[in-house]
Amino acid sequence: MKTIERVDLYIRSKGLNDRQFEVSANLWNGILGKARKSKRGNLSNDIIDKILNTYSDLSEVWLKCGEGEMINEKSTKQPACLSGWLFLFPHVVRISPIGAILQSG
């Protein structure tokens, strides 16, 4: 399942339409529709970060990897699909391929 398809499931579970979701997460107007039309159906890390910062109940692992439950679980185990990511409570820090540390949140 593509990232945009997981976002769509979450939006439906919240009873929102695209525009309500985009406004609440401070996303560009129509970005979800554009992602649906693209061949890859993926969203940029910036967009995913905005979504996760707005909807704290949404599981980062589920959204990015499709593993686990849609709604956050209390777990400290890091799944293999996030193997480029280090979890440092309360912020998520990502090591880029060139070794720089990028902080989100």
Describe the structure.
About 10% of the residues have low confidence. Helix content is 40%, strand content 12%. The chain has 5 helices and 3 strands; from the N terminus they run αααααβββ. The longest helix has 12 residues. The radius of gyration is 14 Å and the shape is globular. The protein has one domain. By secondary structure, the protein is α+β, with helices and mostly antiparallel strands.
Would you summarize the structure shown here?
The protein is of the alpha+beta class and 105 residues long. It has helices at 3-14, 18-24, 31-37, 45-54, 60-65, and strands at residues 85-88, 91-95, 101-104.
